[in-house]
Design a protein that fits this description.
By secondary structure, the protein is of the alpha+beta class. The chain has 2 helices and 9 strands, in the order αβββββββαββ.
């Protein structure tokens, strides 16, 4: 199964699984309704009856972001909730592009600035990401990530 199929299948599975937990007694079928994405009507999806959706597709203005790095494709910020409090909730968050200029001719990363509309931030690999999380011992000290010798 490719990545695109997983991104489509998994949220659908989560909504249907959550709907089965909120089914009426007696095993009656959960009625679904087709809802259009509210901002641009770019797509529709099935929503369990009584559930609500918020958000949708939005575009980033390149003039406000100092470049086109994050404005070349629309962003999706959509949430589907069982109730107003979000007791059961599924959310699609927007994907943002970042720039790491440490290995470029500019030579460093100035966090808080932008390069062609992308916030400057050092990229993380698996080793540096896991060492940030660290593991704790009984003493409560953080220890860096280490490969086991056994």
């Amino acid at each position: 199964m490719n990545g695109k199929a997983i991104r489509i299948f998994l949220p659908t599975f989560v909504i249907l699984a959550a709907a089965t937990f909120t089914q009426p007694a007696g095993g009656a079928a959960m009625p679904m309704k087709r809802v259009w994405e509210p901002n641009e009507r770019a797509f529709s999806f099935l929503l369990p009856q009584g559930w609500q959706s918020e958000g949708g597709i939005f575009n980033v203005n390149a003039a406000q972001m100092n470049g086109t790095g994050n404005s070349n494709t629309p962003k999706t910020d959509l949430s589907v909730k069982m109730d107003r409090a979000g007791t059961v909730m599924l959310r699609w968050v927007p994907t943002w592009n970042y720039a790491d200029l440490r290995h470029s001719a500019m030579g460093s990363t100035f966090q808080g600035r932008y390069y062609q509309g992308m916030p400057l931030k050092p990229s993380m690999n698996a080793r540096s990401g896991s060492s940030r999380c660290g593991s704790t011992r009984a003493s409560g000290r953080r220890t860096p990530w280490r490969r086991s010798s056994t």
